[in-house]
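During the reporting period, our protein records have gained a structure token line. A sample record is set out beneath this paragraph:
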Amino acid sequence: MAIGNQTHIASTLRKPLAEDPELAEVLDFTLTYGTRLKDQLAANQSQLVPAHIAYDKKVLSFKAYFKEAVPESPTEKFRVRFVRINYFLEDDSINVLETAQVNSGLPQGVFLRRQRVPRSTVKNDFYTAKDFNVAVDLALYGRVYRIYDCDGFTRNYYQSLGITLTESEVPPTDQYSQTRLYSECPARNAATPNANRFALRKFLENDRKVLRFYCSWDNSDEPFGECRPYVVQFFLVDDTVEVREVNTPNDGRDPFPIFLRRQRLTKTSGGNDYYLDEDFKPDCVVNVLGRPFLIYDADKFTKDYYSEKFGIKDWPQTDSGIPDPQTMHSSIPGLSSSPLMKTVPHRDMSIETKPPRVDLKKMMDYQGKLLRFRATMETQRPEYRGRAFVVAYYLANDTIGVGELPLKDGIPGGRFLERTRLRHPERSRHAAPSGYGLQATDDSREYYQPSDFFVGARISLLSWTFVLHDADEATLRHMEANPYEFPMSNVDWVLEHVAAQLQAGGKGGVSALKAAFQRYDHDGSISGQQLKDALLLLGVDLAEQEKITLLRRYDLTGEDKVHYFELCTTLDAYVRQS
């Protein structure tokens, strides 16, 4: 008896004594029963499996019901509500779920959340699996449930324990449920009208089966009329007709594909005689609301359908009257024999302006790079002569932007010209004659190029003329790094220009230039202004950009001191070569 009690204590604790030293020390059975009992308990505990593993996901399910009183109803006294009681073997917990009924008007679902339910008022007295059976009453928190059945797993579980459950019983029904069952499921008459039975059979046989006919409607006798193609679709499921327009790219019509929405089509206006599948035949005319449609062809399914049902196997080749699409060539009256047609490409003869072509390689190479010059406005108005501007040329997309510098006389400055691409006013490869409504495209214009911008240049931008006076260091370096695009920043080109003018001037050449430099010389060098004066004295006419190129090449220290000995030596070599 003592051994059974100790085993019950160990199974109740659900933990072997070897895993809990404190419990093993308290329950020291050797003091009472000796070492033999201790060895036997250790052997039994080593084979013990925890309950949460042995009974994981094992649930005993019982079907039950309870009667709920309806005190204020003249048609019923009580209502039967069906539930399912689940008993979890893992932890002896119970939950109650009410079976959902359609349109019951009652909150259904979880009736009792999963928990251990007390059996009586005694402490730690909970329901166990032995308290459940079929055809018994079960009281849970004051509500009495009648168990009338269970599932197969539950019966097998109790049978494995040697317990035989009672046979299932039939649950009762209430008057309200019976009345509602008959009202929602009325008795149907077995006799179905022949017309409805025929419609159902036609739907099942012909659903999604459509006859497709290719037709043409010729109204050329009317103003602006033409012969156009259409598609007539006949739906076998309900004998309806739909007419669709055949739209082609650039046909000049609005995209309305439905010419006649799906409906039953009458043969005559206002009549009750509708078109059927037998009325559509090859080379026949169909009256579509007063418009004659000529059937000249059909698809393969339609031809097979007529061959099988009506025996029509050959569809004649009917002339639809639809003209073949031709490529339209635009011609401008009075301009076909013009010399302009020989010079302007056909793609330039466009009514709408085409978007400019983007040079992606150029954008990637020159992203963020620009030419920036300080400029003044060339104008006859004296109040505009003191205004200062900054002209920027963006190399990525050949756009030009102009900003104005603030002055103390009240001009706030800011953006003067929005960044845009502008044409050169004196260069235009193809100029369309006025009066013909032509609009030149991107290829027929000559825009400003980077080579048009240099110090001393005059730039006309939208009727405003700007004179470029100076450039920043980044601009000068870019121009010197690309001498073939900016010849005035090419030192060799400038020296050849100077040598050619010295030789053609007849004023002593390089020796006279060297003597002029020596008159300004004090320490072996001259200033930039003295260099310009000496060149001008000998009749050498150079642009401002060319003078800046010479100064930047021979001013080695950056202190406005030009070493003219090297310059004269180089010029003498160019003169001898020429």
